[in-house]
Amino acid sequence: MGDVDNPKYEYLKNLQERVHKIQGEMEKKLNKPAAAMDSGKVWTSKTATAWKGRLDENVRAYNTALGALDDELSAVLASTPRKCSQEEADKWYRELNAYNRTMRFQ
Q1: Inter-residue long-range contacts of 66-73, CB under 8 Å, 24+ positions, other chains counted
Q2: Of 25, 56, 88, 95, which is most buried, counting CB atoms within 10 Å of its CB?
Q3: In this structure, how many other beta carbons lie within 10 angstroms of the beta carbon of residue 18?
Q4: What are the backbone angles phi and psi of residue 40, rounded to the nearest 5°?
Protein backbone atom coordinates (compact mmCIF):
# COMPACT_ATOMS: atom_id res chain seq x y z
CA MET A 1 0.00 0.00 0.00
CA GLY A 2 2.68 2.49 0.94
CA ASP A 3 6.34 2.98 1.24
CA VAL A 4 6.80 4.98 4.47
CA ASP A 5 5.97 4.31 8.11
CA ASN A 6 2.43 5.38 8.97
CA PRO A 7 2.55 8.13 11.64
CA LYS A 8 -0.97 7.26 12.79
CA TYR A 9 0.09 3.68 13.46
CA GLU A 10 3.20 4.83 15.32
CA TYR A 11 1.17 7.30 17.39
CA LEU A 12 -1.39 4.65 18.36
CA LYS A 13 1.34 2.12 19.18
CA ASN A 14 3.07 4.65 21.47
CA LEU A 15 -0.26 5.48 23.08
CA GLN A 16 -0.93 1.81 23.77
CA GLU A 17 2.52 1.41 25.32
CA ARG A 18 1.87 4.40 27.60
CA VAL A 19 -1.50 2.93 28.61
CA HIS A 20 0.19 -0.39 29.50
CA LYS A 21 2.87 1.41 31.52
CA ILE A 22 0.35 3.48 33.46
CA GLN A 23 -1.84 0.42 33.98
CA GLY A 24 1.09 -1.44 35.55
CA GLU A 25 2.03 1.51 37.76
CA MET A 26 -1.54 2.01 38.95
CA GLU A 27 -2.00 -1.69 39.63
CA LYS A 28 1.00 -1.63 41.97
CA LYS A 29 -0.21 1.53 43.70
CA LEU A 30 -3.73 0.21 44.18
CA ASN A 31 -2.74 -3.31 45.23
CA LYS A 32 -0.39 -2.11 47.96
CA PRO A 33 -3.05 -0.53 50.22
CA ALA A 34 -5.50 -3.34 49.48
CA ALA A 35 -2.93 -5.98 50.49
CA ALA A 36 -2.03 -4.04 53.64
CA MET A 37 -5.68 -3.84 54.65
CA ASP A 38 -6.21 -7.52 53.88
CA SER A 39 -3.30 -8.39 56.17
CA GLY A 40 -5.15 -6.95 59.17
CA LYS A 41 -2.01 -5.11 60.29
CA VAL A 42 -3.32 -1.66 59.37
CA TRP A 43 -6.56 0.24 59.95
CA THR A 44 -9.14 -2.28 61.09
CA SER A 45 -12.70 -1.20 61.84
CA LYS A 46 -16.13 -1.16 60.26
CA THR A 47 -15.15 2.05 58.49
CA ALA A 48 -11.97 0.42 57.21
CA THR A 49 -13.94 -2.54 55.89
CA ALA A 50 -16.39 -0.22 54.13
CA TRP A 51 -13.52 1.84 52.70
CA LYS A 52 -11.79 -1.33 51.47
CA GLY A 53 -15.02 -2.39 49.77
CA ARG A 54 -15.18 0.94 47.95
CA LEU A 55 -11.51 0.64 47.00
CA ASP A 56 -12.16 -2.80 45.52
CA GLU A 57 -15.13 -1.45 43.53
CA ASN A 58 -13.06 1.44 42.20
CA VAL A 59 -10.17 -0.84 41.26
CA ARG A 60 -12.56 -3.11 39.33
CA ALA A 61 -14.11 -0.12 37.54
CA TYR A 62 -10.66 1.28 36.74
CA ASN A 63 -9.40 -2.05 35.40
CA THR A 64 -12.55 -2.52 33.31
CA ALA A 65 -12.18 0.95 31.79
CA LEU A 66 -8.48 0.49 31.02
CA GLY A 67 -9.17 -2.94 29.57
CA ALA A 68 -11.80 -1.45 27.27
CA LEU A 69 -9.39 1.31 26.22
CA ASP A 70 -6.71 -1.28 25.49
CA ASP A 71 -9.16 -3.39 23.48
CA GLU A 72 -10.23 -0.35 21.46
CA LEU A 73 -6.63 0.68 20.79
CA SER A 74 -5.80 -2.88 19.71
CA ALA A 75 -8.75 -2.91 17.30
CA VAL A 76 -7.79 0.44 15.78
CA LEU A 77 -4.15 -0.66 15.49
CA ALA A 78 -5.20 -3.88 13.77
CA SER A 79 -7.11 -1.89 11.15
CA THR A 80 -4.38 0.74 10.66
CA PRO A 81 -1.74 -0.07 8.04
CA ARG A 82 1.90 0.10 9.18
CA LYS A 83 2.91 1.74 5.92
CA CYS A 84 1.29 4.47 3.86
CA SER A 85 2.05 6.86 1.03
CA GLN A 86 4.22 9.90 1.69
CA GLU A 87 1.20 12.15 1.07
CA GLU A 88 -0.87 10.35 3.68
CA ALA A 89 2.04 10.42 6.13
CA ASP A 90 2.38 14.17 5.63
CA LYS A 91 -1.34 14.59 6.31
CA TRP A 92 -1.09 12.59 9.56
CA TYR A 93 1.98 14.53 10.67
CA ARG A 94 0.05 17.78 10.21
CA GLU A 95 -2.99 16.47 12.10
CA LEU A 96 -0.98 14.97 14.94
CA ASN A 97 1.14 18.11 15.33
CA ALA A 98 -1.97 20.32 15.41
CA TYR A 99 -3.55 18.02 18.01
CA ASN A 100 -0.40 18.00 20.17
CA ARG A 101 -0.15 21.79 20.05
CA THR A 102 -3.75 22.31 21.20
CA MET A 103 -3.64 19.59 23.89
CA ARG A 104 -0.54 21.07 25.47
CA PHE A 105 -2.53 24.04 26.76
CA GLN A 106 -5.55 22.26 28.16
Answers
A1: 66/19, 66/23, 66/26, 69/19, 70/16, 70/19, 70/20, 70/23, 73/12, 73/15, 73/16, 73/19
A2: 88
A3: 10
A4: 80, 5
Closest CA to 8 of 68, 71, 90, 64: 90
pTM of the model: 0.73
Q: How many domains does the chain have?
A: 1
Query: Do residues 80 and 9 make contact, with C-beta atoms less than 8 angstroms apart?
Result: yes
What is the tens place of the pLDDT at every residue in 17-69? 998 998 888 888 888 887 888 887 887 788 888 888 898 898 889 889 988 99
What backbone phi and psi angles, to 5 degrees, belong to 83? -120, 155
Query: 60: domain range?
Result: 4-103
